[in-house]
Amino acid sequence: MQVTRPKKVEIIGVPSDLGANIRGANMGPAAIRIADLKKKIQELGYAEIDRGDVAVPVRDQVPQEVAQSKYLGPIKTICDQVAAQTQQVLEAGNIPVIIGGDHSIGIGTISGASSYFRSQGKKMGLIWVDAHADINTPTSSPSGNIHGMPLSVVLGQGHPELVSVGGPGAKVEPQNVALIAIRTIDALEREQLKKSGITYFTMRDIDEKGLAKVMQESIAAVSKGTDGIHASFDIDGVDPLYAPGVSTPCTGGLSLREAHLIMEMAFETGRLTSMEIVEVNPAHDQGSQTAILAVELILSGLGKSIV
Ligand SMILES: [Mn+2]
Known about the structure:
It is a single chain. By secondary structure, the protein is α/β, with parallel strands linked by helices. The protein is 38% helix and 16% strand. The chain has an eight-stranded parallel beta sheet with strand order 2-1-3-8-7-4-5-6, sandwiched between helices. Helix 8 (187-196) links the parallel strand 5 (177-182) and strand 6. The longest helix has 20 residues, at 72-91. The protein starts with 7 loop residues before the first strand and ends in a 6-residue tail after the last helix. The model has no long low-confidence stretch (mean pLDDT 96). Manganese (II) ion binds at residues 103, 130, 132, 134, 234, 279.
């Protein structure tokens, strides 16, 4: 007889917008919770533990020299905490769901998940959904904002303080990374992307191939030789028509159903071990539309299906 343990989801809130120059993503975790995240996860049949929010300094209280460093020190401290918590949840056999917060927090989530797999001599794959490539380095970035750099960092490049979160070096291998829905890339970042060795699909690729095919190819890449998959879903990957509450909206994005299909197909691999939804910015939202979408995408990633 098959014995199944009760499935448990653990929420980690990361109310930080320090990685962005546009403010407001720090309110994302509150808006996502208010959109009934807990209740809806429970309705899906999971036990749910909310671990609360990771400590984040108040932006207006941070000294000016730290602000000029683009909040590098505080972001490192935040990511260290996120990494430790993500690893703890995986070690407990539970599913970490991280709610942001700007995308710099992905340095923490991915480093923590990677530490868990590496401690067992295993590897993980990474599905990254985004309008932007987030693969800038301090030398390629026009703005220096750290939320444009997390993918580079987890591939082992960029600020050494951030690369060292959760242990030294790259946290994922480029052949196990799939970047989906990109459509706005900085000039020097384009070179970074091309030489990175990751699999990437622009919106044009999605137009031509269809999202199901893009996901099949993505899943093949992130599954090769790995034992788990982390989904890092930047809500700005979705078209602003459906997700207006973001800091950096880009038209020409994913439709509502394409966004869901990504999470549904990721769940169906049976190996989606952790996920995060980032860049919900309630200061730019229309009503709670974007926070509600964030909850719905999490549910698709946890196995909610139409029938
Ligand atoms: Mn992003």
